[in-house]
Amino acid sequence: MKGIFKKLLLSTALAVGTVSAFSLPSIAFAGSIDIQSVLQQERAWAGMQSKKLKVGDIEWAYSEGGQAGKPTLMLVHGLAGSRDNWNRLARYLTPYYHVIIPDLPGQGDSKVAADFDYSIPNMTEKLRRFAEAAKFENGLHVAGHSMGGAIALLYTAQYPVDTKSLFLIDSAGVFKSANTPYLKDPTTLRNMLVAKPGDLDRILKIATNLPPFIPKELKESQEKMMISQSANTSKLIEQLIVMAKVYTPDTFALAARSIDQPVLIAWGDKDQVINVEAAAELKGLLKNAQEPVILKGVGHMPIMEQEQLLVKPYMDFLNKVK
Predict the structure, then answer these.
(1) Which domains does the chain have, with CATH numbers?
(2) Fewest CB atoms within 10 Å of the CB: 9, 70, 170, 195?
(3) Does residue 241 register a pLDDT over 50?
(4) What is the C-alpha to C-alpha distance for residues 83 and 65, in angstroms, rounded to an integer?
(5) What are the residue boundaries of the AB hydrolase-1 domain, all occurrences included (predicted)?
């Protein structure tokens, strides 16, 4: 039974940078299966343990795996996602690296005050305070997916002495070339919110190239959880809209051009949220970026759609920059 539910969870690749069956609340279904117990089993399968740390007014929930003496990777999830979006990739990394995956403030299990500032600069600064409190800020390898990519890029630009490398996967940003409605008209991001029944199916068709099969009970539970978190997700979306208005491609380029660290870029060629042209634009901005890894037939969620295609390029990249 455990193996069946593990496979069901593993098959659930969801939303815009975004959503995971792994961030389900503590509910039971299909014979009183405890979802939190399944999540813990999934993290253990990936070589991770669930931890908490209070830093200022944020109660951080995060996963940690691998040996503390090895190089540290910090993986940053996207909009409306959770640390568990990374589990499928993390299981390949924990045998060789010290891996930290936080739930961003107000997402997953990380708790914040009702008036928390969800702007990208503030999220980045709070992530730095978390890294300092957990004492892994030095010699850090940072990776980010979607909105997490924008945070990872800004983190690397702001803390260059302590950051050794950057990995960007279908990364958010303010681009000239990315020709998708979600960047041309940022208010369309509001349509990515799961606020009522039926929204999840609609978003799956946008965020993944081949929407996965999800058992009815699991999908309903996931959708209910996302609806319950829609207020926080809405605040994040509004901040992304503000970012697109405040920052131009030229000002975004200034931050990117300030980064000297080695950078790996990966993109799904069927990404409907931030299209693949952005990968080449990012490479042109970053001084030390490798040729982007373009994943054929993959949508906006490579870390859950085809994570195995990311493993060798990332491991090879890390071996070069240790």
Answers:
(1) 2-321 (3.40.50.1820)
(2) 195
(3) yes
(4) 12
(5) 71-305
Q: Spell out the residues 6+ positions from residue 94 whose beta carbon is closer than 8 angstroms to its own.
A: 46, 47, 48, 65, 66
Global pTM?
0.88
Helix (H/G/I), strand (E/B), else coil: 47:
coil
**Sequence-separated (6 or more) residues with CB below 8 Å from residue 39:** 22, 24, 50, 84
pLDDT exceeds 60 at position 5: no
User: In DSSP terms, which residues pair with 74 in a beta bridge?
Assistant: 100, 142
| DSSP string of 251-304, one letter each residue | HHHHHHHT--S-EEEEEETT-SSS-THHHHHHHHH-TTBPPPEEETT--S-HHH
Q: Would you state the structure tokens that stand for residue 82, as one six-digit string?
A: 């959770």
pLDDT greater than 90 at residue 222:
no
Q: Which residues pair with residue 294 across a beta bridge? A: 267
CA distance 134 to 298: 35
What is the CA angle 91-96-97, rounded to 5?
Answer: 85
pLDDT at 12 over 80: no
